[in-house]
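Incident log, structure service

09:12 report received: a user says their structure output differs between two submissions of the same chain.
09:20 pulled the input from the user's history:
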Amino acid sequence: MSEMLERSARIIDGRERLAMNGLYGASGTPAAEVGDGVALVEAFSNVVAFRTDAGLALFDVSHELFAPDARARLRGWCDDRVDTVVYTHGHVDHVTGAGVFDAEATERKSGAIRFVAHEAVPDRFDRYVLTNGYNGVINMRQFRLPEPRFPSEFRRPDDVYRDQLTLDVGGTELALHHARGETDDHTWAWVPQHRAICVGDLFIWQFPNAGNPQKVQRYAWDWAVALRAMAALEPELLLPAHGAAVGGAALVQTVLIDTARALESLHEQVLALMNAGARLDDVVHTVRLPDDLAAKPYLQPTYDEPEFVVRNIWRLYGGWYDGNPAHLKPAPETTVAAELAQLAGGATRLAARAEEVASDGDLRVACELVEMAAQAAPDSPGVHAIRAAIYEARRDAERSFMATGIYRSAAMDSRDRVDQLGTPDAQADATS
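09:34 re-ran on a clean worker, output below:
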């Protein structure tokens, strides 16, 4: 068994702790051969490779910033031409490295690479162009970039399919299956010759990314269905797009079924409450992941988290209305904030109360109060200083990358406002 497969086994059975940075292979780390003619290059997004009689069949090509290193490490394992690339889905960390591989094929005069994907991938690329600025802002907030940045040009697939497609690449069969999960354009593949499944982002060594508050709809139930379909094939090798491969039928079954159970549990709980007439607020604060699943090392909420998945399930079935009639056609938030600040005796007093609540440990309520204070007095450096401190505390208290990125961004916004407005003046703020 390869070192990578031994490592994943130790993590699954609890002998080794999974570190977040362990999900991304360090630059220069050799490609790991995890089967006869099968390799995985760990990167920001992995490259999975199968050696065939026609050349290499790859699943994903990583992000454009990491693809040159990933390609070099792949070449340390095998120098065969690349014949076929399958996009597991259209997220930029999986597809924007295509230019690196196309350029190599041109330089080596080894023949054009065939790119294959689900038929919704080109639609995703069109949407990325349409919402380029918005996605740049999200990336800046989520990945702590200094400025908005998002690609606007993509290597489009040469061939697309709808439900299923079986490719024969140099005698190696790749059975492609469409599934909705993290995206609506996801592909997972069964490679019977190796009893392997290429899962893309349908297993990521963290709680499934089925919530993501800043992105489009995700599909928890469909995701679980796909995982169970994979498990039914009794694979012996699981090849993900993030993190290490998993080897051995028993271990592969364990991670697939546990992940499916987690998504099914949230889905069933949300629907039960919706069908009983509950509001979204009640659902969010009631639904919980079962304790046995919450303890799994490969289901920790370090990127996405169950609470966000709950909201996405609601959005899928219930739309944007949350059940509170005041939210159907609400007043502007700044107007409501000004009214509440006046009732509290001013924005500074409201912010001071937020500080007190935060010191008592209720950061959820503290964030609500300080946000109202900042909306009521947007030019108060004192209020913004309190807002920054509260969101910094909230960031430190959270585990998921989604939440910490947003809270960090909010804190930085207020720190910048304090720098622009000057040192807080208690006398001036007292009149806010």
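09:41 both user submissions now match this output. Likely a transient worker issue. Closing.
09:42 reviewer note: Residues 331-430 form a domain with the Serine Threonine Protein Phosphatase 5, Tetratricopeptide repeat fold (CATH 1.25.40.880). The CA atoms of residues 67 and 245 lie 19 Å apart.
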